[in-house]
Amino acid sequence: MTTQTEIMETLAQVMDPELHRNIVDLGMVRDLETNNGTVRFTLALTVPECPLRDQLLTEAQTAVSTLPGVESVHVTPGSMTPEERRAVFGISSQLPPKSTRKQVKKVIAVMSGKGGVGKSLVTGLLAVGLKQAGYQVGILDADITGPSIPKLFGAHGPVTEAEDGRLRPIRSRTGIKLMSVNLLLEDETQAVIWRGPLISQMITQFWQEVDWGTLDYLLVDLPPGTSDAVLTVLQSLPVDGIVMVTTPQALAAMVVGKAVKMAQTVNAPILGIVENMVSFVAPDTGKRYDIFGPSHISQVTTISGAPLLARLPLKSQVAALCDRGAIEAVEEPEVEVLAKGLIWHVPVARTTMIP
Ligand SMILES: Nc1ncnc2c1ncn2[C@@H]1O[C@H](COP(=O)(O)OP(=O)(O)OP(=O)(O)O)[C@@H](O)[C@H]1O
Ligand SMILES: [Mg+2]
After folding, report:
1. From the centroid of its chain, how far is CA 302?
2. pLDDT band of 229, cuts 50, 70, 90
3. How many Å apart are CA 125 and CA 312, to the nearest integer?
4. Residue pair 217/339 in contact by the 8 Å Cβ criterion
5. Is the CB of residue 224 below 6 angstroms from any atom belonging to ligand 1?
6. What is the dihedral of CA 297, 299, 303, 306, to 10 degrees?
7. Degrees to nearest 5, angle at CA 328 with 326 and 332
8. Rounded to the nearest whole angstrom, what is the distance from the C-alpha of residue 229 to the centroid of ligand 2?
9. CA 143 to ligand 1: nearest atom
10. Domains, the chain, ranges and CATH?
11. Which listed site, 69, 189, 234, 354, has its alpha carbon 20 to 30 Å from 99?
């Protein structure tokens, strides 16, 4: 029968394709037991919903089953603790604790399990509404590979450095502070093709090494899905709550359900749900169309246990203004509704800025 050392050597040939290190070095292989030709071990994945889960489990199992004397291999999927994850991703565990981040009062992440449901639009409109209500607002664009915040606000770099070397956010027309990878690129059309750990690092830098100044609310626009980047935000930033965005489709409700589970796994409270693209009212006839079918919002509010903050119709004027970088010119009642909903659930005292 093959020894445990030989099994570990074999498993060290299995690489995590995302992290480019083998699963033994990454500390993923645990509780190895051998007994009369039966091998059992746990494979601790970075996150329970790891997209590479099946691939890694199969590769580990296949590698061990080819060893002499091995008759059966049982691999139990497990997951790493937050500290282990931080160590793997090379993220400093020395991030300032919540109490020391004196100047940013509340951090709110805007999330959804699905792409294209309007997270960035909702983040932008929330910021506009909060600013109109007299609050100091910033947006951290955590979508490193698909940043859309600068485009919505018509904002451009270059970002400059403060005296202490931290980056100064770009101010939008109405004074919303913005930081996005697109404001750092020389050519905004350049693609950012980075692997998970680099993306995670960039996000933590946007939190730690940006001179946000005094902010009542910092909104974080998350990329779609339940990727490493989302996990980095939820675990490395002092997130006070999540706004979950969904659309009426059953599929969206199902995928959002996954994001809700992720938020619950990392103990990030879901403050409220925004249902986007609920209906379209034809401007010429006034006829209402439910483009994405009947709403499944009650499913999402039930799974999440969170209230509905707002329902946004599909409006071509809104899309047109966003395309022109003029989100701050959107004059829809929903902008105020959104902001009021957030202020109600996460109240802060307004900061009065001395001009
Ligand atoms: N209610 C709406 N009315 C009109 N257009 C909308 C509405 N919601 C979103 N859009 C448009 O749909 C597109 C996708 O929205 P957005 O980029 O906000 O989605 P997202 O969830 O952030 O996408 P991604 O997953 O790629 O980050 C954008 O062009 C946006 O302007
Ligand atoms: Mg987006």
Report:
1. 22
2. confident
3. 11
4. no
5. yes
6. 30
7. 105
8. 13
9. 27
10. 4-80 (3.30.300.130), 98-345 (3.40.50.300)
11. 354
